[in-house]
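Pair request: fold both.
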Amino acid sequence: MIADPTLLQMKYTRVIERFAEKADISLRDAMDFFYHSKVRMMLQDGVSNLHCMSDGYIAQDLLEEYQQQKEMT
């Protein structure tokens, strides 16, 4: 199922804010990471109805992806 584009953009905003807090990074850095993440691709594509999950849940998934990427560098 594909989410309404306007609602999805609003969700992105909330997720980015929560992710920035959890990762202790700036909103700019959080937004840059988010828009290049696998999580955003899954949200956009409607994979597993991820967009139906809570903002906190998605932010946690994003944080895990962020931490994995940092470990690889």
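--- second member of the pair ---
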Amino acid sequence: MNYQETLEYLYTRLPMYQREGKRAYTKDLTNTIRLLEELSNPHQNFKSVHIAGTNGKGTSAHAIASILQSAGYKVGLYTSPHLKKFTERIRINGLEIREDFIIEFVDRIKSTIESIHPSFFEITVGMAFDYFAKERVDIAVIETGLGGRLDSTNVITPEVSLITNIGFDHMDLLGDTLPKIASEKAGIIKPGVPVVIGEKQAETAEVFLRKAEKEGAELMFALPSNYRSETLVPDYLVKNLGGVEAVIKVLRDQGWNISDEQLMEGVKRINEQTGLKGRFQVLSETPLTIADVSHNEDGLRTLFAQISELKARNLHLVFGMVQEKELAPIIDLLPKGAKFYWTESHVPRSLPVEELAIQTVVRGKTGDCYKDVNEAIDAATTRAGSDDLVLITGSTFVVAEIDVL
């Protein structure tokens, strides 16, 4: 198979959460363990940092990888989902995984795929671990998919773990209370491995303390970061820097050589060094147009607070969601007075724009409907004045389909 045929095989053969939702979620590690055994357990051949959380885990993963890269290390980075290309999920020092490796990997394990029927995510985890081991990275930063306890990445024994925060998301799979969700995330806490909690929350702190005590793991609640840059630093980044800095301190204590200057450089060059996309990403200056993948209550609340500081004359909000979300609290967060452009993505999980329009109008918010995000953006930018703001958000998949991203 060539590269496109290989991708088509992965997309059509394997259940994919981004496309199919909970049907593709595997509730145990059996397939992952079996797959890694077939690969001679590559995850045992490199050091790692493991990251879970409701919001901020992707940002934190990219920031830690960038800092380690600035410190001169060869750094693997595994994140999900991708926005534009499959290869975005697996990087070394910012460079995406080679297409020829993907072809060879799938060909090598095809019989195993057809024997154990893994999910798309399980295969990508195995691929990442195999790639990092073969490329001899110094350390890999590994972001969980859903939860933590049963996540396919939860086979590694990292140098340090980070749990960014706990919020209401994926409640159909992880639980309907913050302590229940925290318990799933706490599943990444390993015996004797230090763990950083990025945000201390009254409802969840005891969950982490009990789990850490049970595992004999040192636990630290991160302090807010004092970091400020001369340029605009989005709130989502500042909010997560305390946890990032605490992780770096643990690594320093373990003997990793990372200076304060390298930490600052890594933060400032996060986009350049890791290819981070879709997080407060400026697409155009006039009118100011920003894309952001925030998609749950906590993430959107932080985003809208940041947007309010920009003092735009009018806000043009291009917005779409996926089906599993509880709509009412999210709709209520949408800024009053904004001009709304409802849209949808082309993945099966996307909430149909007509349904979104119905749900928003009954809560006092009306807008025009567009079947494609780019049509919605065109309409918004046409109507926007030079001192207005166009914001595209609500779903990773809506942001992923922006042509100019």
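Observation on the second member. Residues 95 and 274 are 8 Å apart (CA to CA).
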